[in-house]
Amino acid sequence: MTFEPVLIGFTCNWCSYRAADLAGTSRTKYPPNIRLVRLMCSGRLDPTFVLKALAEGADGVLITGCHPGECHYLEQNYKALRRYHLLRRTLQSLGIEAERVKLVWASASEGLQLAEAIRQFTEEIRALGPLRWNARPELRSEDAPLEAVP
């Protein structure tokens, strides 16, 4: 059985969410593995949202926003880019592949490009395999806590 990754996509309301909508209305197919979450701006994405998504079962997170220089909130996508790089370093320090988080720029008219980015990201995560961040090793009897001595 082929591993089917669970992906979360945080999308900018003004550009990439509309690109996803355009992909849908154009009947452009892309993997159903992704669940899109609309944000007003990619610059408003709190990195803890990404960590929470991964901790609660997502195998990868796609962050999408307006192209640099085209943000409706002036320079917030540059803020998203800085946070993205810090987030990738944080994941690496936690022993998680940085490739599980990806940043894509997509304007409202780029539905085909966004669909292709989602297809490509799905394949990249499929190749990495499941994250299993919450998988805990079974407690062996020799690892059991000692009984309190009265």
Reconstruct the topology from this structure.
Elements (H helix, E strand, L loop, with lengths): L6 E6 L3 H10 L8 E6 L7 H9 L4 E6 L10 H18 L7 E5 L5 H18 L22
Parallel strand pairs: 1-2, 1-3, 3-4
Helix pairs in contact: 1-4
Description:
There is one protein chain. By secondary structure, the chain is of the alpha/beta class. The chain has a single domain (7-133), classed as Rossmann fold (3-Layer(aba) Sandwich). 37% of the residues lie in helices and 15% in strands. It has a four-stranded parallel beta sheet with strand order 2-1-3-4, with helices on both faces. Helix 1 (16-25) crosses helix 4. The longest helix has 18 residues, at 76-93. The protein is globular. Mean pLDDT is 89; it is low at 136-140.
CATH topology: Rossmann fold
Judged by helices, strands and strand pairing, the structural class is alpha/beta
The total number of structural domains is 1
Instruction: Give the percentage of residues in beta strands.
Output: 15-25%
**Fraction of residues in H or I helices:** 25-40%
pLDDT under 50 segments (min length 5)? Answer: 136-140
SSE run: EHEHEHEH
For the sheet with most strands, the description reads: 4 strands, parallel
Please work out how many helical segments DSSP would assign: 4
Shape: globular
> What is the arithmetic mean of pLDDT?
89
